[in-house]
Amino acid sequence: MNLWRLDCGVQTLLVGGDKNLPEVFYWGKRLPETDDLREIWDSTRLDYSGGVLDGVPPLSICPEVSKTFAGYPGMRIRGTTGRRLQPNFRLADAKYTETSLILKFEDLKLGLAYSASFLAHKATNVFELSASLSADIEILVDWFAAPVLPATQTAQKMIDFSGHWCREFEKQETDWSIGARLRNNQTGRTGHEHFPGLIVPALNCDDTQGSAYAWHYGWSGGHSMIAEELPDGRRHIQFGHAFDSYPNPILHIETAPLFVSYSDQGLNGLSVNFQRHLRDKVITWTKGSLPRPIHYNCWEAIYFEHESNNLSEIMELAADIGAERFVLDDGWFGTRDDDTQSLGDWEIDPRKYPEGLGPLIAKVNQFGMSFGIWFEPEMVNLNSKLYVKHPNWVLGTIDQILGRNQLVLDMANPGVQEYLFEKISAILGDHNVTYIKWDHNRVLPHVDAAQTYGTYELMSRLRDKFPNVEIESCASGGGRIDFGILKYSQRVWLSDTNDAHERLRIQHQASNFLPMAVTGSHVGPRECHTSGRIHNIKFRAWVAAQRLMGFEMDPRELTPEELSSLKKITQWWKDNRIWRHDADIHRLKVADISITAEIQISRNQEKFVVFVGIAETSKWSCPIPIQLTGLKPDYIYDVTLLNHHEKTTASRGGSVFDKGKISVSGQYLMSNGIILPSQFPDRMWVLEGTQ
Ligand code: DGJ
Q1: Among 207, 410, 496, 554, which one carries the catalytic annotation?
Q2: How does residue 474 score in pLDDT terms, banded at 50, 70 and 90?
Q3: Is 160 designated active site?
Q4: Does 206 fall in a domain?
Q5: Which of 4, 172, 225, 556 to pair with 196, CA 20 to 30 A apart?
């Protein structure tokens, strides 16, 4: 009998079995060192009754049909003749350290080797799991799961995230019941629709308390997830590349890393683990990406109309407000006057830039800003020189429906890879560029893992050649956000909606996985281009200031008052960006559903900022206390209402903050909470606290 134990922060994972594929027979709150693993193994064995098999089929790390497992199997593979293969693996090797367990198994009859890896990232309280499969002769792979973990039987619900353009990170809660919940993303990219994550909260768990378990599959090519409750009551979770990601016979496959974490501090505990892990372990920061710069992006100001005088005026104003990086969005190449043409023709448009981009960049630099540029490398328009020259570089059939008038290039084709590498390198090599906004504005015609590996390869080559160039992952807003793409990029464009009301909610939910340091958020035009809503500048600016602040409106529309407010909030953001880079975001549990609030706390818990977004009119006529979380109970904090001057006629009585700061304990702030002045909807209160 082999029994292995991995500890990671507050959690313990126990893996055990004999010669067969092992089971994760415990995953949860850290166990005492003194616990005897054999006793635990024995006590997790199940009884069974009538009408079932004479034994309980193992729920292994890759549940096997060969062991009479009748739930969803961990792999579905076939020989090239189409014959189903039912492997029966035996242990071949085990390597075990305090932070890792790597197991190798063989099925000599079928000529298959399976490997599973468990890594404990103790500093971030995250386990990283992966699996691989090698075959002596080519096989067809329909499904292959990363190591399968059990899900707690104490949970009533599971939580995952869906959405669409301008409505990312829509939280979904599903009741557990016998049978499987399948999320099968066949779009070929991470997608707005299927964020690759799952949270299973134990009973009575919420944002701030209780036990919770989470999974995130770090893959940008579309995933499948199976969350199954077996008729015997056991539950298991499978994540892998989407079904049918391997259209061709293959000798070797690997899953993406599956990041899993347990928290005894509610969903916020999981959020903190993922936020820290992404920021501190997954991302490679570039020289210019720290401290995080304030962006100005010209997309919603000029769209495809690049005109040098306009750009000069805009960049001067943007720099004056506080922008530190100027991003030239879509429209600078080919004859890209609208979205029907030129994708693929990555040469500077001589009509718009007769002397190239040099003079524009020089001006950007003169205003003290660095320069960033937009690409959408994986795409081509029918109306482009590239398509005319290489119609066979396109992925998918002739009958496919276009997406935003464009087709997808076959990233597995070495010719495509080389072409894009040369074209992008030429722009980066000839100019002082510090940043690429890397867009991906349509789904693939079919799912294919090779496409994603091709994109990773191209990004990796460019990162090697231009290590100081930061990359932002954008896909019509938040269509490609995952820890896979973030191995090669440093920022995500969370959504195309700059509507502060919408963004407040999207940012709130995205904090389940994303830290402030990667999450772009821009102050949009007064009248939002994607919703038609009009919001005052302060609300727009504070919502952007919650994350990586930037501007995207035409700054010439700003009134002197708006300009002044925006400058002040931008300066506040800059003054606080260093400690906030490492801060943890906790969502606040507020009984008043009209409020969306969060606290960002410094790592030493000595500083915090609370953002209280008033999303609608409350059902109560007086404000109710807002309880903070994550503070040191015995610290005395000085708390100020930073934007007290934004009080409106909604507040007719008084507030304790009228007198300035209050000094109270962390315990009081967490037990009773703070009472803020009444406020109109679509406003933000911002509190600062210092020990
Ligand atoms: C979609 C992106 O999400 C926008 O921000 C912008 O870059 C456009 N593409 C440009 O075509």
Answers
A1: 496
A2: very high
A3: no
A4: yes
A5: 4
